[in-house]
């Protein structure tokens, strides 16, 4: 199974901490979904939106145990959804995490910045997140 990541899980050190290992990755794009910063949070939410696309990373060949760790990490605000992402000239089926409808009031409509997350919040995340069994 493949996973499309669009937020903190794009960052190899975060994926390694959450899943316990790294996977082969490549740039990907998801059509029909927008990534926004969430009010009061350092991570984004993904919502369906016509006419937009979200850049991210496709992590390849995620095992069932690894996927369960990702489900736990994403928590109750997100649902795992099967989508098609563009990788180069190909379309690839993948799983991604979409903000559930009851949490969409948290969307700020401000874009989320990977660079901002890495410069301001990554070190704190790595220092405090011990894994799914914490």
Quick structural summary:
This protein is α+β, with helices and mostly antiparallel strands. It contains 4 helices and 5 strands. It has a single domain (3-126), classed as Hypothetical upf0131 protein ytfp (Roll).
Question: What do you see in this structure?
Answer:
With 134 residues, this protein is of the alpha+beta class. It has one domain (3-126): Gamma-glutamyl cyclotransferase-like (Hypothetical upf0131 protein ytfp). 25% of the residues lie in helices and 39% in strands. It has helices spanning 12-19, 64-74, 114-120, 122-128; strands at residues 3-5, 25-37, 44-59, 78-87, 90-99. The strands form 2 sheets. A 3-stranded antiparallel beta sheet has the order 1-3-2, with no helix packed on it. A two-stranded antiparallel ribbon has the order 4-5. Strand 4 and strand 5 form a beta hairpin. It starts with a strand and ends in a 6-residue tail after the last helix. The model has no long low-confidence stretch (mean pLDDT 95).
Question: Which helices and strands appear, and what pairs or packs with what?
Answer:
Layout lengths: L2 E3 L6 H8 L5 E13 L6 E16 L4 H11 L3 E10 L2 E10 L14 H7 L1 H7 L6
Antiparallel strand pairs: 1-3, 2-3, 4-5
The residue fraction in helices comes out at: 10-25%
Spell out the CATH superfamily.
Answer: Gamma-glutamyl cyclotransferase-like
Silhouette: globular
Beta-strand content estimate: 35-45%
Radius of gyration: 14 Å
Q: Based on DSSP secondary structure assignment, what is the total number of beta strands? A: 5
What's the pLDDT, averaged over the residues? 95
Structural class: alpha+beta
Widest sheet, order of strands:
1-3-2
- Order of helices and strands, N to C? EHEEHEEHH
User: CATH class, please?
Assistant: Alpha Beta
Biggest pleated-sheet summary? 3 strands, antiparallel
Number of helices: 4
């Amino acid at each position: 199974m493949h996973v499309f990541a669009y937020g903190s899980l794009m960052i190899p050190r975060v994926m390694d901490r959450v899943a316990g290992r790294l996977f082969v990755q490549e740039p990907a794009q998801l059509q029909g979904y927008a990534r926004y910063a969430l009010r009061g949070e350092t991570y984004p939410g993904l919502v369906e939106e016509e006419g937009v696309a979200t850049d991210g990373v496709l992590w390849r060949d995620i095992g069932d145990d690894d996927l369960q760790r990702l489900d736990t990490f994403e928590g109750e605000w997100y649902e795992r959804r099967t989508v098609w992402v563009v990788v180069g000239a190909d379309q690839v089926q993948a799983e991604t995490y979409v903000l559930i409808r009851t949490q969409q009031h948290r969307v700020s409509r401000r874009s989320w910045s990977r660079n901002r997350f890495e410069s301001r919040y990554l070190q704190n995340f790595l220092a405090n997140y011990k894994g799914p069994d914490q």
